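Hi support team,

I submitted a single chain yesterday and got back a structure, but I'm not sure I'm reading the C-alpha coordinate output correctly. Could someone confirm the output below corresponds to the sequence I sent? I've pasted both exactly as they appear in my results page.

Thanks,
R.
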Amino acid sequence: MNALEQLKKFTRVVADTGDFESMKAYLPVDATTNPSLIYAAAKDAKYRHLAAAAAAEAKKLSQNNGEQLALCLDRVAVLFGLEILKIVPGRVSTEVDARLSFDTEATIEKARQLISMYEKAGINRERILIKIAATWEGIKAAEVLEKEGIHCNLTLLFSKIQAIACAEAGVKLISPFVGRILDWYKKEQQFSSTNPLDDPGVKSVTEIFNYYKKFGYTTEVMGASFRNKGEITALAGCDLLTIAPSLLHELESSNETLQLMLDANHAQAMDIEKINLTEKSFRWLMNEDAMATEKLSEGIRKFTADLLKLEEFLKKEFLQ
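Hi R., thanks for writing in. Yes, this is the structure output for that exact sequence:
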Protein backbone atom coordinates (compact mmCIF):
# COMPACT_ATOMS: atom_id res chain seq x y z
CA MET A 1 0.00 0.00 0.00
CA ASN A 2 1.11 3.55 -0.64
CA ALA A 3 1.30 6.06 2.21
CA LEU A 4 -2.15 7.50 1.52
CA GLU A 5 -3.76 4.07 1.63
CA GLN A 6 -1.96 3.33 4.89
CA LEU A 7 -3.02 6.67 6.36
CA LYS A 8 -6.67 5.88 5.60
CA LYS A 9 -6.32 2.79 7.82
CA PHE A 10 -5.57 5.03 10.81
CA THR A 11 -7.35 8.31 10.05
CA ARG A 12 -10.33 9.72 8.16
CA VAL A 13 -8.89 11.69 5.25
CA VAL A 14 -10.59 14.95 4.28
CA ALA A 15 -9.98 16.91 1.07
CA ASP A 16 -9.00 20.54 1.65
CA THR A 17 -10.05 21.82 -1.77
CA GLY A 18 -12.87 23.27 -3.81
CA ASP A 19 -11.84 21.25 -6.85
CA PHE A 20 -14.25 18.39 -7.52
CA GLU A 21 -11.84 16.49 -9.75
CA SER A 22 -9.29 16.26 -6.94
CA MET A 23 -11.96 14.83 -4.65
CA LYS A 24 -12.87 12.20 -7.21
CA ALA A 25 -9.21 11.29 -7.61
CA TYR A 26 -8.35 10.85 -3.91
CA LEU A 27 -11.68 9.59 -2.54
CA PRO A 28 -11.74 11.43 0.80
CA VAL A 29 -14.46 10.74 3.39
CA ASP A 30 -15.26 14.43 3.94
CA ALA A 31 -14.34 17.76 2.35
CA THR A 32 -13.83 21.26 3.63
CA THR A 33 -14.06 24.58 1.82
CA ASN A 34 -13.49 28.27 2.54
CA PRO A 35 -13.89 31.50 0.54
CA SER A 36 -10.35 31.32 -0.90
CA LEU A 37 -10.93 27.79 -2.22
CA ILE A 38 -14.34 28.76 -3.61
CA TYR A 39 -12.88 31.90 -5.18
CA ALA A 40 -10.15 29.88 -6.89
CA ALA A 41 -12.63 27.28 -8.11
CA ALA A 42 -15.27 29.80 -9.24
CA LYS A 43 -12.73 31.45 -11.57
CA ASP A 44 -12.24 28.08 -13.27
CA ALA A 45 -14.41 27.72 -16.36
CA LYS A 46 -15.55 24.32 -15.10
CA TYR A 47 -17.28 25.85 -12.07
CA ARG A 48 -18.38 29.33 -13.20
CA HIS A 49 -21.91 28.03 -13.72
CA LEU A 50 -22.28 27.58 -9.95
CA ALA A 51 -21.43 31.22 -9.27
CA ALA A 52 -23.73 32.28 -12.10
CA ALA A 53 -26.58 30.22 -10.66
CA ALA A 54 -26.03 31.70 -7.20
CA ALA A 55 -26.13 35.23 -8.61
CA ALA A 56 -29.29 34.53 -10.61
CA GLU A 57 -31.07 33.29 -7.49
CA ALA A 58 -29.89 36.29 -5.47
CA LYS A 59 -31.25 38.69 -8.10
CA LYS A 60 -34.65 36.98 -7.97
CA LEU A 61 -34.82 37.33 -4.20
CA SER A 62 -33.73 40.97 -3.84
CA GLN A 63 -33.28 44.17 -5.80
CA ASN A 64 -30.96 45.64 -3.17
CA ASN A 65 -27.30 45.40 -4.16
CA GLY A 66 -26.07 44.68 -0.63
CA GLU A 67 -28.68 42.02 -0.02
CA GLN A 68 -27.99 40.48 -3.42
CA LEU A 69 -24.32 40.13 -2.61
CA ALA A 70 -24.96 38.57 0.82
CA LEU A 71 -27.46 36.13 -0.68
CA CYS A 72 -25.07 35.29 -3.51
CA LEU A 73 -22.20 34.58 -1.11
CA ASP A 74 -24.30 32.18 0.94
CA ARG A 75 -25.78 30.53 -2.13
CA VAL A 76 -22.46 29.98 -3.90
CA ALA A 77 -21.03 28.36 -0.75
CA VAL A 78 -24.02 26.04 -0.53
CA LEU A 79 -24.00 25.21 -4.24
CA PHE A 80 -20.34 24.18 -3.99
CA GLY A 81 -21.22 22.19 -0.90
CA LEU A 82 -24.04 20.40 -2.71
CA GLU A 83 -21.72 19.41 -5.55
CA ILE A 84 -19.12 18.15 -3.06
CA LEU A 85 -21.73 16.02 -1.28
CA LYS A 86 -22.37 14.21 -4.57
CA ILE A 87 -18.74 13.05 -4.41
CA VAL A 88 -17.85 12.47 -0.76
CA PRO A 89 -19.82 9.97 1.34
CA GLY A 90 -19.54 12.03 4.52
CA ARG A 91 -19.70 15.72 5.37
CA VAL A 92 -18.80 19.09 3.91
CA SER A 93 -17.71 22.11 5.95
CA THR A 94 -19.23 25.46 4.97
CA GLU A 95 -17.82 28.62 6.48
CA VAL A 96 -19.59 31.46 8.27
CA ASP A 97 -18.50 34.96 7.24
CA ALA A 98 -15.25 35.68 9.11
CA ARG A 99 -16.45 39.22 9.76
CA LEU A 100 -18.91 37.73 12.26
CA SER A 101 -16.14 36.15 14.34
CA PHE A 102 -16.86 38.35 17.39
CA ASP A 103 -20.65 38.36 17.09
CA THR A 104 -22.29 35.34 18.71
CA GLU A 105 -25.88 36.10 17.69
CA ALA A 106 -25.03 36.96 14.08
CA THR A 107 -22.98 33.77 13.76
CA ILE A 108 -25.90 31.70 15.06
CA GLU A 109 -28.28 33.36 12.61
CA LYS A 110 -25.94 32.86 9.65
CA ALA A 111 -25.42 29.19 10.52
CA ARG A 112 -29.18 28.64 10.69
CA GLN A 113 -29.57 30.28 7.27
CA LEU A 114 -26.93 28.04 5.71
CA ILE A 115 -28.42 24.88 7.22
CA SER A 116 -31.87 25.91 6.01
CA MET A 117 -30.53 26.26 2.47
CA TYR A 118 -29.00 22.79 2.59
CA GLU A 119 -32.16 21.25 4.03
CA LYS A 120 -34.31 22.89 1.34
CA ALA A 121 -32.02 21.15 -1.16
CA GLY A 122 -32.76 17.81 0.52
CA ILE A 123 -29.54 17.45 2.53
CA ASN A 124 -29.71 16.21 6.11
CA ARG A 125 -27.97 18.58 8.54
CA GLU A 126 -25.86 15.64 9.78
CA ARG A 127 -23.84 15.97 6.57
CA ILE A 128 -22.97 19.64 7.15
CA LEU A 129 -20.37 21.19 9.42
CA ILE A 130 -20.60 24.94 9.92
CA LYS A 131 -17.10 26.43 10.07
CA ILE A 132 -16.67 29.10 12.73
CA ALA A 133 -13.54 30.84 14.01
CA ALA A 134 -12.56 29.63 17.48
CA THR A 135 -12.98 32.97 19.25
CA TRP A 136 -14.83 32.94 22.57
CA GLU A 137 -17.87 34.37 20.75
CA GLY A 138 -17.61 31.73 18.03
CA ILE A 139 -17.36 28.91 20.56
CA LYS A 140 -20.43 30.21 22.41
CA ALA A 141 -22.33 30.36 19.11
CA ALA A 142 -21.34 26.77 18.38
CA GLU A 143 -22.56 25.70 21.81
CA VAL A 144 -26.04 26.99 20.97
CA LEU A 145 -25.99 25.53 17.47
CA GLU A 146 -24.90 22.07 18.60
CA LYS A 147 -27.94 21.92 20.92
CA GLU A 148 -30.08 22.52 17.82
CA GLY A 149 -28.41 19.67 15.97
CA ILE A 150 -26.36 22.02 13.80
CA HIS A 151 -22.85 20.59 13.94
CA CYS A 152 -19.84 22.88 13.88
CA ASN A 153 -16.21 22.83 12.78
CA LEU A 154 -14.24 25.31 14.89
CA THR A 155 -11.40 26.60 12.77
CA LEU A 156 -8.40 28.91 13.29
CA LEU A 157 -7.55 26.87 16.37
CA PHE A 158 -3.98 27.21 17.62
CA SER A 159 -4.02 26.31 21.31
CA LYS A 160 -5.10 23.68 23.83
CA ILE A 161 -7.10 26.42 25.58
CA GLN A 162 -9.26 26.95 22.49
CA ALA A 163 -9.59 23.19 22.12
CA ILE A 164 -10.73 22.69 25.72
CA ALA A 165 -13.31 25.47 25.42
CA CYS A 166 -14.65 23.80 22.25
CA ALA A 167 -14.88 20.40 23.92
CA GLU A 168 -16.66 21.85 26.95
CA ALA A 169 -19.13 23.53 24.58
CA GLY A 170 -19.94 20.19 22.92
CA VAL A 171 -18.53 21.17 19.54
CA LYS A 172 -18.58 18.38 16.96
CA LEU A 173 -15.14 18.99 15.44
CA ILE A 174 -12.10 21.25 15.71
CA SER A 175 -9.47 22.08 13.09
CA PRO A 176 -6.12 22.85 14.73
CA PHE A 177 -3.80 24.51 12.20
CA VAL A 178 -0.50 22.62 12.15
CA GLY A 179 1.40 24.52 9.47
CA ARG A 180 0.48 27.99 10.63
CA ILE A 181 1.86 27.19 14.08
CA LEU A 182 5.14 26.15 12.47
CA ASP A 183 5.09 29.36 10.40
CA TRP A 184 4.93 31.47 13.56
CA TYR A 185 7.84 29.71 15.25
CA LYS A 186 9.94 29.93 12.13
CA LYS A 187 9.33 33.66 11.91
CA GLU A 188 9.44 34.64 15.58
CA GLN A 189 12.01 32.24 16.99
CA GLN A 190 13.98 31.27 13.89
CA PHE A 191 12.64 27.78 14.53
CA SER A 192 13.70 25.17 11.98
CA SER A 193 12.00 21.79 12.21
CA THR A 194 13.81 18.86 10.61
CA ASN A 195 12.11 16.05 12.55
CA PRO A 196 8.30 16.11 12.21
CA LEU A 197 7.99 14.97 15.82
CA ASP A 198 9.70 18.21 16.87
CA ASP A 199 7.32 20.31 14.77
CA PRO A 200 5.43 22.64 17.18
CA GLY A 201 2.22 22.23 15.17
CA VAL A 202 2.44 18.45 15.39
CA LYS A 203 3.14 18.71 19.12
CA SER A 204 0.10 20.96 19.60
CA VAL A 205 -2.31 18.60 17.85
CA THR A 206 -0.85 15.60 19.68
CA GLU A 207 -1.36 17.34 23.03
CA ILE A 208 -4.97 18.23 22.17
CA PHE A 209 -5.72 14.71 20.92
CA ASN A 210 -4.31 13.14 24.09
CA TYR A 211 -6.22 15.56 26.33
CA TYR A 212 -9.52 14.79 24.58
CA LYS A 213 -9.05 11.04 24.76
CA LYS A 214 -7.85 11.16 28.37
CA PHE A 215 -11.01 12.91 29.56
CA GLY A 216 -13.49 11.26 27.20
CA TYR A 217 -14.48 14.25 25.08
CA THR A 218 -16.33 13.29 21.91
CA THR A 219 -15.22 16.38 19.93
CA GLU A 220 -13.33 15.19 16.85
CA VAL A 221 -9.81 16.47 16.14
CA MET A 222 -9.04 17.27 12.50
CA GLY A 223 -5.47 18.40 11.88
CA ALA A 224 -5.32 21.07 9.15
CA SER A 225 -3.04 23.49 7.29
CA PHE A 226 -0.08 21.23 6.56
CA ARG A 227 3.23 22.44 5.18
CA ASN A 228 4.78 19.04 4.39
CA LYS A 229 4.09 15.33 4.25
CA GLY A 230 6.04 14.67 7.46
CA GLU A 231 3.55 16.68 9.52
CA ILE A 232 0.77 14.46 8.20
CA THR A 233 2.44 11.11 8.78
CA ALA A 234 3.47 12.23 12.29
CA LEU A 235 -0.25 12.58 13.10
CA ALA A 236 -1.40 9.20 11.77
CA GLY A 237 -4.17 8.11 14.11
CA CYS A 238 -5.68 11.58 14.54
CA ASP A 239 -9.47 11.43 14.16
CA LEU A 240 -9.31 13.28 10.83
CA LEU A 241 -6.74 15.13 8.73
CA THR A 242 -7.73 17.65 6.05
CA ILE A 243 -5.14 17.64 3.28
CA ALA A 244 -4.57 19.70 0.14
CA PRO A 245 -4.44 17.88 -3.24
CA SER A 246 -0.68 18.46 -3.69
CA LEU A 247 0.07 16.63 -0.43
CA LEU A 248 -2.50 13.93 -1.15
CA HIS A 249 -0.59 13.30 -4.39
CA GLU A 250 2.70 13.19 -2.50
CA LEU A 251 1.30 10.63 -0.06
CA GLU A 252 -0.12 8.55 -2.88
CA SER A 253 3.28 8.56 -4.60
CA SER A 254 5.12 7.46 -1.46
CA ASN A 255 5.74 3.88 -0.39
CA GLU A 256 7.10 4.69 3.07
CA THR A 257 5.73 2.63 5.94
CA LEU A 258 3.43 4.53 8.31
CA GLN A 259 3.00 3.86 12.00
CA LEU A 260 0.14 4.67 14.35
CA MET A 261 1.34 7.82 16.09
CA LEU A 262 -1.75 8.99 17.98
CA ASP A 263 -3.48 6.29 20.03
CA ALA A 264 -6.61 6.92 22.13
CA ASN A 265 -5.93 3.90 24.36
CA HIS A 266 -2.42 5.14 25.10
CA ALA A 267 -3.74 8.64 25.85
CA GLN A 268 -6.20 7.34 28.42
CA ALA A 269 -3.32 6.01 30.51
CA MET A 270 -1.44 9.32 30.52
CA ASP A 271 -1.03 11.54 33.57
CA ILE A 272 -2.70 14.74 32.32
CA GLU A 273 -4.06 17.55 34.48
CA LYS A 274 -7.69 18.60 33.90
CA ILE A 275 -8.15 22.30 33.18
CA ASN A 276 -11.35 24.10 34.15
CA LEU A 277 -12.07 27.11 31.96
CA THR A 278 -14.17 30.22 32.43
CA GLU A 279 -14.47 33.12 30.00
CA LYS A 280 -12.01 35.11 32.10
CA SER A 281 -9.44 32.31 32.23
CA PHE A 282 -9.90 31.62 28.51
CA ARG A 283 -9.20 35.24 27.61
CA TRP A 284 -6.26 35.45 29.99
CA LEU A 285 -4.63 32.22 28.79
CA MET A 286 -5.11 33.23 25.17
CA ASN A 287 -3.51 36.59 25.95
CA GLU A 288 -0.54 34.76 27.48
CA ASP A 289 -0.12 32.65 24.31
CA ALA A 290 1.36 35.10 21.80
CA MET A 291 1.38 32.56 18.98
CA ALA A 292 -2.29 31.59 19.35
CA THR A 293 -3.43 35.19 19.78
CA GLU A 294 -1.49 36.45 16.76
CA LYS A 295 -2.38 33.56 14.46
CA LEU A 296 -6.08 33.72 15.36
CA SER A 297 -6.22 37.46 14.60
CA GLU A 298 -4.17 37.04 11.43
CA GLY A 299 -6.34 34.13 10.31
CA ILE A 300 -9.55 36.13 10.70
CA ARG A 301 -8.00 38.98 8.70
CA LYS A 302 -6.88 36.59 5.95
CA PHE A 303 -10.25 34.83 5.79
CA THR A 304 -11.89 38.26 5.52
CA ALA A 305 -9.49 39.32 2.76
CA ASP A 306 -10.33 36.13 0.83
CA LEU A 307 -14.02 36.79 1.33
CA LEU A 308 -13.65 40.32 -0.05
CA LYS A 309 -11.88 38.93 -3.12
CA LEU A 310 -14.77 36.52 -3.66
CA GLU A 311 -17.26 39.38 -3.21
CA GLU A 312 -15.48 41.53 -5.79
CA PHE A 313 -15.35 38.63 -8.23
CA LEU A 314 -19.06 37.92 -7.85
CA LYS A 315 -19.99 41.61 -8.20
CA LYS A 316 -17.83 42.14 -11.27
CA GLU A 317 -18.72 38.93 -13.09
CA PHE A 318 -22.32 38.21 -12.11
CA LEU A 319 -24.04 40.98 -10.16
CA GLN A 320 -23.60 44.04 -12.41
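A quick pointer for reading it: Strands lie at 12-16, 30-32, 92-95, 128-133, 152-157, 173-176, 220-223, 240-243. Let us know if anything else looks off.

Best,
Support desk
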